[in-house]
Every structure is written in structure tokens, then in C-alpha cells.
Design goal:
The chain is mostly helical and 193 residues long. The two termini are 22 Å apart. 78% of the residues lie in helices and 0% in strands. Helix 1 runs parallel beside helix 9, helix 1 packs antiparallel against helix 10 and helix 5 runs antiparallel to helix 6.
Length: 193
Amino acid sequence: MSVLRWITTALFIASIPVFLVLTNVRIAATDLHVYSYSFSHYDVPAVTGVVLAGLAAATLILVRTPLAFALGATAVAALGVATVPALYLFVRSFFGWRPALLAAAFLTVSYWHIHYSRTAFTLIAAPLAECVALYLLAIGVRTGRGWAFAASGLVAGIGVYTYRGYLFFALLLALVWVFWIEPRGRTSVSEAS
């Protein structure tokens, strides 16, 4: 096994647990007990003259503005829109342009996809991460290029931050890598089938 191939394999396999650990650190860091020690524990009102009620009111004013909500909703909806071409590219890489166009059309009018994009629910980023990770993995399998495998692992790892259910996809992707792609020596999809 060449050094580059070993490095891309290690990066792909290691990226998922690393991002899982980072997710748990993020959850622990943003737990409510952490915030109980920040403002009142160090007597910030006596030092700065800012009272907790004033800080809370200023935060609510900033967060509840129509512009803040519109920007957040637009950003999440853009993720839903970006999923359509990502799905098209992924399906086209395996089945051709006609099934890819059909899949993209079905996703475009899918009830759940429209609903979660419209309501600005952040789980809509999970299908985008899945489609991009699978497309990059398909490029890597077809061409044998290490950058595609590494990018697929990176996107799969970043996708862990989108939704808790994404962990099952990341685990499945790692299993596909370990038991199907790596033992075959990264041959093309058509030869491996």
C-alpha cells in the first residue's frame, strides 16, 4: 500500500470519530451549567456596571429582530436548495443524467424537503452533507484519487454537526469504506460490482 493511499485511508477513517468527539465537546461546553458560572460567579455587574437583566434584554432585542430571523431562515433554506444539485451530481455519477434529473425533480417537490427548508429547521443540512460525501466518495472510487477520499471523509465528519440521526449515515459510510472499498483496492465502481 502506497504512503498516499495509507494517509487518505487513515484520514477518512479518523475523521468520523474525531468529529464525533468534537460534537460531544461542543455539547458539553454549551451545557447550561457552564453558563451559570460566567456572569454572576465573577461579579461582572460590580466590575462593569452591566446588570444581568440589561444584558438579557439586549440579547433579546438582537436575536428577535426580523432581520436576524430572515437571515437565519434564508441561510437554512439555501442549504435545502443546494441539496438539489448535489443529489443530481451524486445520482448522475452512478446512473446517468436521466435518473439524476428525475431524482432532483422528486427532491425539489418532496414534502419533507420543502417543509424543513421553509421552517428553517437545521436538519436540512444533513441530506446536503450526505449527497456531497457520497459524490466525493464516488469520484474517489472511480478515479482512485486520494483528495476525493479525504474530502469525502471530511464532509462526512462535518455532517455530524448537522443532525443526530446523521451518525448512522457516518457509521454506514465508514463500514462501506472498510468492508467494500478498501479491500477491493479502490477499483472503479463498475469493476467492483
